[in-house]
UniProtKB/TrEMBL annotation:
GO terms for molecular function: ATP binding; ATP hydrolysis activity. InterPro entries: AAA+_ATPase, ABC_transp_ATP-bind, ABC_transporter-like_ATP-bd, ABC_transporter-like_CS, P-loop_NTPase. The keyword Protease does not apply. This is ABC transporter ATP-binding protein. GO terms for biological process: transmembrane transport. It comes from the Bacteria. CDD domains: ABC_NikE_OppD_transporters. Keywords: ATP-binding, Nucleotide-binding, Transport. SUPFAM superfamilies: P-loop containing nucleoside triphosphate hydrolases.
């Protein structure tokens, strides 16, 4: 065992004839934040989708805790998907507008067969508190929350799956600058408390420098440094 949480080896992802990711390799340890930086269209989000196995790569390997994911069937992937959770850019768009916050946070527990009617509500309360939200928010719907609060709900939902790795694709880019620092501090605290690994996509150099342990620069689907 290498001890890496995530290893990506010679990853290639194509959209038709266009190669979006062209031989990308990197590794990430537990508790580490690795940033992917580079101009728009260089392949950052596609790399993230391939790590999440939401886009199956055309070539290369994605190893999570030493297990190669690309060869696994959907059925074999299911228990591992839980451990690799995404947080996307659009805080409102990633929450179902009709669902109350409690249902959104409880959803992973229910889908994964881990919902216990006796202890579930307290678990939801604990998750909301963990991301800095008052438990009374459980009864609200997304339109009653600010962008920063919605992003905290998205993080609580990710934590409900007890992940080891978060794939954070521009998690604060859509937020008001005044609330970005709060969400980044929350993410840093969670990483340090839970020993999570972060694959962090962000085009804000100041944020990347402050938040990431290491930065990989991409251009035209390749790593440049
Ligand atoms: N679903 C898709 N179908 C076809 N081409 C795509 C698709 N998604 C992305 N691409 C192309 O793949 C390349 C890499 O895109 P990707 O979104 O991964 O880059 P990015 O670095 O994340 O960009 P951004 O910072 O703008 O999100 C681009 O040329 C893009 O146009």
């Amino acid at each position: 065992m290498s001890g890496y949480l995530l290893e990506v080896r010679d990853l290639v992802v194509r959209y038709g004839a266009a190669t979006a990711v062209d031989g990308v390799s990197f590794a990430l340890s537990p508790g580490e934040t690795l940033a992917l930086d580079g101009p728009s269209g260089c392949g950052k989000s596609t790399t993230a989708l391939a790590v999440l196995q939401l886009r199956r790569p055309d070539a290369g390997e994605v190893l999570f805790e030493g297990r190669e994911l690309t060869a696994l069937s959907e059925r074999e992937l299911r228990p591992l998907r839980r451990r690799v959770q995404p947080v996307f850019q659009d805080p409102y768009g990633s929450l179902s507008p009709r669902h109350r916050i409690r249902d959104t946070v409880a959803e992973p527990l229910k889908v994964q067969g881990r919902w216990n009617p006796d202890t579930g509500p307290a678990k939801v309360t604990e998750l909301l508190e963990r991301v800095g939200l008052d438990p009374s928010y459980a009864a609200r719907r997304p339109h009653e929350l600010s962008g920063g609060q919605c992003q905290r709900v998205g993080i609580a939902r990710a934590l409900a799956s007890e992940p080891r790795l978060l794939v954070l694709d521009e998690p604060v880019s859509a937020l008001d600058p005044s609330v970005r620092a709060g969400v980044l501090n929350l993410l840093a605290d969670l990483r340090d408390e839970l020993g999570l690994g972060y694959l962090f996509i962000c085009h804000d150099r100041a944020v990347v420098r402050h938040f990431a342990d290491r930065v990989i620069e991409m251009r035209d689907g390749r790593i440049t440094s």
